[in-house]
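Anyone able to model this chain together with pyridoxal-5'-phosphate?
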Amino acid sequence: MKDKRIPFNWPHMTGKELYYIAESHFNGRLAGDGPFTKRCHEWLETQVECNKALLTHSCTAALEMAALLLDISPGDEVIMPSYTFVSTANAFVLRGGVPVFVDIREDTLNIDERLIEAAITSRTRAIAVVHYAGVACDMDAIMEIARRHKIRVVEDAAQGVMATYKGRPLGSIGDLGAYSFHETKNVISGEGGALLVNNADFVQRAEIIREKGTDRSSFFRGQVDKYTWQEVGSSFLPGEIIAAFLWAQLEDAKAITTRRLDSWNWYHSALAPLEAVGALRRPIVPHDCEHNAHMYYVLLAAKIDRQAVLDELRTHDVDAVFHYIPLHSSPAGKRYGRVHGNLNQTDELSARLIRLPLWAGLPQEQQERVVSLLSGAIERRTNSI
Ligand SMILES: *Cc1c(COP(=O)(O)O)cnc(C)c1O
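re: yes, here you go
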């Protein structure tokens, strides 16, 4: 990159995307579930070890499929963090479900598993967990609670591709998992996603719901002699051009993750001195989690004016950004959701968080500039207090 602006994200291309797109063009296979979709499914099923992987046109779509599969009905409650992207909640609200927001952990910013059980009522149908920044929630504890109360677990693993919890891929642990291949994620297809079906009971219906509520997939396998409308569904599958692009990315997923981890680790060492003087806190990755460097964030000391720091970075052409406005404080979150207990960590931590530019192949000189500008900005804020 010639210009000196350091963007927050820079979509990584492997170089094979157009080649595979050309292949599907020449094959004349453009609708969904063609050869590239099949390759992506097989890759995901091997990598994630799920019963069934199904490409969708987004992670949002995969979460909407999850809500349909769980038969979420008006008044059913789904426990989730408030510190998440809108799709985690929206998918269930579309079915009349009620998001019940609980607080997050101070270390990982993931749902605090110790608060879940007290939020369970007779209407609770599921727990929707979010693996923030590709760092896993405490899935053993969460699965144990779900088993005891006979409720389902959906993993919003939008940020979790290639990350693991106790050696198990994120998205492979709950009944259902959802990945995102949006341009801002690690492995991309512009828009894109996948539903991971771990609980075998959901495999057949997942195929039906994804194909407009029909048994078209069984028909093409020769298992039925005509396909018909079986239940409520929609069109959740991407076309082959998207799958062709994604295939190039999946082939390189390991290398992409390694390069992102290099940049993540560089930030982590470079920012240790600022943590040592109490200016900020770096991300904490529990020892049983292997993350995928989806994000590098810092939590500024509470007394530092975050907006002033962001503005100063922006003035110097560094695109650092904050993240979620907690859902419980948003207009729709207030209308459709309910809060359990207090959300003090959610409110406090979300207000202190800054995400730094990070992508596969981010040059080290640019990282040096980010860290030096961030140090300067923090120092000036600290002195002016
Ligand atoms: C990106 C993201 C989504 C949405 O993914 P899309 O593929 O854009 O629909 C949902 N949840 C979380 C936690 C995300 O980070």
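The chain has a mean pLDDT of 96.
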